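Dear support,

I submitted the protein below through the web form. The confirmation email said the job was done, but the results page showed an empty box. After a refresh the structure appeared. I'm attaching both so you can tell me whether what I see now is the final result or a partial one.
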Amino acid sequence: MKRAALLILLCVIPSVCATAYSMPPQIAVEAEAGPMDVSYFYGQLAPYGDWAEVPTYGWVWTPHGVASDWRPYSVGHWVYSDDDGWMWVGDEEWGWATYHYGRWYSDSGRWRWVPRPEWGPAWVSWRTGGGYIGWAPLPPQAVAAEVGLTIAAAALDALLPPRSYCFVEERHFTEERIYTHLVPPTRNVTIVNVTQNITNYTVVQNRYVNRGVPVENVEHVVGHAIPRARVVENTSASHRAVVEGNAVKVFRPQVRPGPVTVNPVDPHASIPKSAPDAERLKLEQKQAKERADLETRHTKEIQNPPKNVPVEQVKARHEEEHRALQQKQTRETEQHAAARQSSPPGKKH
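What the results page shows now:
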């Protein structure tokens, strides 16, 4: 398969990732003037799902009331903007956040969302070929950079199993009720084998642009020009994206990474501001580096697998190494928490 030049950057700066995304978040109910930190998402999404802290990514969110075969970016439709490229207009109340900020990953059959501060028209991996167009949510390892995002297609494919994708026949790609045209996920493995990854993100005037599928190709298939949408700010009480004529109204507050100090499950369980847990931060940074190093090694092995070793065997070993690392880091975190609890405030342990 020809490798597409993708624009996705793996998180190889662990100290930044750990401090920005893995500390317990602060509840924020209403937007304030100026940039907000990522904690704004926690209060906004709490009515629609559950927050939980996991060793690998910190605080993650799981939506309520979705079908067992639900996947992100499946309930809504695509519009095209000359400025931003392909934009997902989600039908869920919480889609303004989870489809335009952050990343998704599947955990034991449940999709979880990891908050990130950068806004984009959609954060997806694209595949085309054999008369199909498919898209899947970018994994947490795909981190925004100043020039876009960059990694080889094989590495991204290794992180996204076929079941992550939504596929439709090309002629249905711009349908408003695209959910009714999705191919059953049981056919995804077959379709993945006849498609190639064409993910393509760029940065234009400080905006992330999602080109992916060439709009001219879609126009050729459907037999007419694709309307160009203007992206405007949504100032209504509802944050859902709304298409009105040739305009798409979106709610996209400016968000920055920031220190967060309150557990979203128990807002009263604050971390004392007078006694910051420097040892916990050092542990998180060390663990983030371990995860990044493991991802880097796995990516290289997928791109250049050992001779005479089946790719599936390599992937199985990678999964086992991921589980082993997660178990080790969970033990470390629990041991640190126990030591912290047994030590008086201000006493080193």
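Response: this is the final, complete result; the empty box was a page-load delay. Residues 1-34, 268-277, 344-349 have pLDDT under 50 and may be disordered.
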